[in-house]
Amino acid sequence: MAIISRGFRGKRDVDPRIPPGQYLERGFPVLSAGPTPRADLSTWTFSITAGGAPRASWTWSELTHLPHDDIVKDIHCVTKWSKLDSAWRGISLDTLLDGVEVAPEEQYAMAHCDGGYTTNVPLADLRGGKAWIAYQYDGAPLPPEHGGPARLLIPHLYFWKSAKWVRSLDLMTEDTWGFWERLGYHAYGDPWKEQRYWGD
Ligand SMILES: Nc1nc2c(c(=O)[nH]1)N[C@H]1C(S)=C(S)[C@@H](COP(=O)(O)O)O[C@H]1N2
Ligand SMILES: [Mo]
């Protein structure tokens, strides 16, 4: 009597790649807390700082000449859409952090963006092939509304952690909250544990 399984499980019989509480989105929604900033690539830089003090910095040309990864990952927004197999090109944070001196107590980072958006993430989540500075989407330059010229891509965390228009990562010795985290979003944001809001 194996016939029952489909109807019995009904709507819950979903793709195992979709985390709990999420639905499959085939488009690519734009979610921005403010206007889309426009960057001038001739003066644009990406920096790693610590307590605000510079540690390393790359011009657009320097950054995009580093060895890149082509990344195909599922992404999950806290507003409940998930998109499968999104295709990006970017520089691994491993590559960027490689040449940077990091003190053992600097275990957290805050992403800072044009427009003022911030989000916090443990440094461990930026290492080990889990995070990138992405500058292409689907084989084309990353569109401004999706974070172009470059955004953070941390697909294993809810997508609000993937800061658009990112300009720096500030290394911190304590986990300080960013924009959405101060407004009630979870400090870490694991979609598989449904860490959406404070207390989840
Ligand atoms: N700078 C900045 N980055 C941001 C946001 C934002 O408002 N500003 N929104 C976040 C949220 S809540 C999500 S779900 C994703 C949305 O990315 P998308 O617009 O490319 O879908 O970007 C994240 N990064
Ligand atoms: Mo989001």
TrEMBL record:
Highest taxon listed in the record's lineage = Bacteria
Q: Which organism is it from?
A: Cellulomonas xylanilytica
What name appears for this protein in its UniProt entry?
A: Molybdopterin-binding protein
Q: Which InterPro entries match?
A: OxRdtase_Mopterin-bd_dom, OxRdtase_Mopterin-bd_sf
Q: Where is the Oxidoreductase molybdopterin-binding domain?
A: 34-180
- Report the SUPFAM superfamilies cross-referenced here: Oxidoreductase molybdopterin-binding domain
